[in-house]
Amino acid sequence: MPNEAYKKKKLGFPVPLREWMREDDLYQKVYEGLQTPIIKQLFDDQKLLSMLEDHKNHKHDYYKKIWTVYCFSLWHQVFFAEEYKH
Predict the structure, then answer these.
(1) Nearest 5°: CA angle at 22, between 39 and 25?
(2) What is the pLDDT of residues 19-32, one digit of tens each?
């Protein structure tokens, strides 16, 4: 192995999530995930939807905040929401 390869700084596996959230498929999934009862109960869902829209339209870069709430919504659906329990 060349010296340069093992001396390089460790890099993660970058994922273009910022851009993907602006595409219709993922945008729609995130939009729906921000409309769940738990999100409406714990967060200002209209503010989140406004942030999502601003992100999609390149007005502001909110992808990390939106993605965090969306992941929470999915986690809650899997482990707590009655309609998803098996």
Answers:
(1) 75
(2) 999 999 999 999 99
